[in-house]
Write a structure and sequence with these properties.
mainly alpha; 70% helix
Length: 441
């Protein structure tokens, strides 16, 4: 038989559950406020004690109301917070299983895709998904099997709140760790995020991609095209992350594709530069802005990236020379429509001129004495000091470096003497032996 104390506790629980069942939306919101205030950070045993070993009965009511009301969005944030108290409790395994058995993960993922749901409510859904992934590999797999990566990535791309996007990054980072079955799926989802319209989402996805790339190992070829495209960004924080990822990938299978792509960006195609500007920009009273700004931003970023990776690796610099980077850098220096392209291309070309005598010779010949001296004396602000004729000389150059440079590291394992000393020693030994034989005879 149960004690009087236990009977009283059960009566309180039944009374509470009856109050919940009979309450309307407003009254239920007040109940949730009180529950959140008094039960935050409690462990599973403490919650059971609070509900007289019937905490699961209240959780079942919460999940049922969630499935019935999430599309309307009534009191959704408080409802998700209340479920989060159960899922974040120490020793919460039982509650997690109960939540998943009623389709909790599917509901959370659906919430992310609803336009009528507030951003703050969706953030709570992301926090709940984080709690699920923190419980182990099989739960990460469940989210991925439920097309979760796509839903999460799409939400990140559309989100307007940077705090929420940062929480999504934490979730994606968790999904790529300790999830070998679906880590490639997460990796591809991150690549798909690169061209999205949100700069913050681009920045965070590129950061996470650097981590995911190490875990996955193999490089997906499509990443090169996306990285070249994101260099059109006006946001320096996004450009920085893209360059850092390029630096990571430069020693992988996509190295040649990356270098070829970067060199190509220095010389935009006629199709890219032949687009007409809006007519409003032709008004002399209006400040003139180039209609090709994205292409020229990309050109400047490519010049900057080439300078960074060339200074980090001599073998990369040599490979770039074989791709005729010098001619393309000079072309960018002649772009009078975008001064930053001119400045960054000048700084990068200066490195090649100072590092390789053959480059200095060809550049000097192509520029002529006056322009070359101006280039050497005023590298960073050359675009301010040269005239239109000199700019045309740079843009129409036909410099062609005919040599294929070989890095010293390529000869590392080549089994050959460094000088003729070994051959000389062998000839001396043969001569001495012959002399001995003559004396013997």
């Amino acid at each position: 038989m149960t004690s009087i104390k236990e009977q009283a506790a059960i009566s309180r629980l039944l009374g509470f559950l009856q109050e919940w069942d009979n309450a309307g939306n407003v009254a239920r919101c007040h109940i949730l406020d009180k529950f959140i205030r008094f039960n935050h950070s409690k462990t599973a045993p403490e919650l059971e004690q609070e509900f007289s070993q019937g905490a699961s009965l209240f959780l079942a009511r919460l999940t049922t109301w969630l499935r019935l009301s999430y599309m309307a969005g009534a009191c959704l944030k408080k409802l998700l917070k209340s479920i989060g108290i159960f899922l974040s409790a120490v020793s919460c395994n039982r509650y997690l299983v109960e939540f998943l058995e009623v389709g909790g993960v599917f509901t959370l993922l659906e919430i992310l895709g609803l336009e009528k749901v507030k951003e703050e409510d969706k953030k709570e859904a992301i926090l709940l998904l984080q709690m699920v992934t923190n419980c182990g590999r099989k739960y990460k797999e469940l989210i991925c099997e439920s097309y979760g990566v796509r839903s999460i990535a799409e939400f990140m791309a559309k989100s307007k709140c940077e705090d929420t996007q940062e929480e999504v990054q934490i979730l994606l980072d968790s999904l790529v760790h300790g999830n070998p079955k679906y880590q490639h799926q997460v990796y591809k989802g991150l690549i798909a995020l690169i061209p999205c319209a949100s700069p913050k989402a681009q920045q965070l996805s590129l950061q996470t991609l650097r981590i995911a790339q190490v875990i996955v190992g193999t490089v997906h070829p499509s990443i090169v095209e996306f990285l070249m495209g994101v260099l059109r960004t006006m946001h320096l924080e996004v450009q920085y992350e893209a360059i850092e990822l390029i630096k990571d990938l430069i020693n992988t299978d996509v190295r040649t594709a990356l270098l070829t792509g970067l060199v190509g960006l220095l010389r935009p195609s006629a199709k890219d530069t032949a687009k007409l500007q809006p007519k409003v920009l032709e008004d002399p009273a209006v400040f003139q802005v180039s209609g090709h700004l994205p292409v020229f931003l990309q050109q400047a970023a490519a010049a900057k990236t080439i300078g960074i990776i060339s200074r980090n690796s001599m073998s990369v610099a040599e490979e770039l020379l074989s791709l005729q980077v010098v001619s393309n850098l000079m072309f960018a220096m002649g772009n009078r429509d975008h001064s930053n392209s001119q400045r960054l291309a000048s700084l990068t070309l200066e490195y090649f001129v100072q590092t390789f005598p053959i480059v200095e010779e060809h550049v000097h010949k192509a520029m002529g004495d006056t322009l070359f001296q101006l280039f050497m004396d005023h590298v960073e602000d050359l675009y301010l000091n040269m005239d239109s004729i000199q700019a045309d000389i740079l843009a129409s150059n036909n410099v062609n470096i005919p040599f294929v440079f070989v890095s010293p590291s390529a000869w590392k394992d080549f089994d050959a003497p460094k000088s003729g000393e070994e051959d000389d020693k062998k000839e001396e030994e043969v001569a001495k032996e012959s002399e001995k034989q003559m004396k013997f005879l």
